[in-house]
Amino acid sequence: MQFSASTSELLGALDALSRGKLTRRRELGTLIELAAGADRMPVLDDLSFLAKFVSKTYGIMTRIGQNGHGYDKLQREFAVNLRNVSDRISTLLEGGPDDIRASFEAELLATTPEALQNLLALCYDLSWYKNWRLDQ
Q1: Domain-by-domain residue ranges, the chain?
Q2: How many beta carbons lie within 10 A of that of residue 121, not counting itself?
Q3: pTM here?
Q4: DSSP secondary structure string, 23-71?
Q5: Cβ(134)–Cβ(45) under 8 Å?
Q6: What gap in Å lies between CA 110 and CA 94, rounded to an integer?
Q7: Contact yes or no for 40/96 (Cβ under 8 A)
Q8: 56-108 pLDDT per residue, tens
Q9: Are the C-beta atoms of 136 and 17 separated by less than 8 Å?
């Protein structure tokens, strides 16, 4: 997908804010483009909020381990919000090009370990978008 000038500028700002830590830049830009083009920016804002929660929760779960205090509750919250992230992404993909939807479904929304890692990486990138929005 070809990005507009405003999306390209925003991705540049996010790269700078994250100090070059974005790993799913193409997918992030695609979601921004789809949200802007379909007047669904509130969905993107909601997605970025949920993604930041998922990213932070995953970090805590990794740090404390399966035997850590509160892990079971975190795991339940993580699963619910990861599903919500997937739902918001699917909403943004509605009406988008078939090849983009297929790519997202295969690389991010499939029920495979690789897709989960890709989705978590996108959540991390979306958390930078949320940080940027908070600074605006």
Answers
A1: 5-135
A2: 17
A3: 0.94
A4: S-HHHHHHHHHHHHHTT-HHHHHHHHHHHHHHHHHHHHHHHH-TTSTTH
A5: no
A6: 17
A7: no
A8: 999 999 999 999 999 999 999 999 999 999 999 999 999 899 999 999 999 99
A9: no
H or E segment and range at residue 6: helix 5-18
Tokens linked to 90: 């699917």
Return the DSSP state at 129. Answer: H
| CB proximity list for 2: less than 8 A, separation 6 or greater | none
Name the token pair of 49.
């909020």
Q: Are 54 and 81 in contact (CB under 8 A)?
A: yes
CA–CA distance, 131 with 21 (Å, rounded to integer): 14
Degrees to nearest 5, angle at CA 15 with 9 and 21: 160
What are the residues whose beta carbons fall under 8 Å from the beta carbon of 5, sequence distance 6 or more? Answer: none
User: By C-alpha distance, which of 49, 8, 58 is closest to 28?
Assistant: 8
User: CA 14 to CA 86: how far, in whole Å?
Assistant: 22
User: What does the alpha-carbon distance between residue 83 and residue 98 come to, in Å, rounded to a whole number?
Assistant: 22
- How crowded is the C-beta side of 101, counted as CA atoms within 13 Å? 11
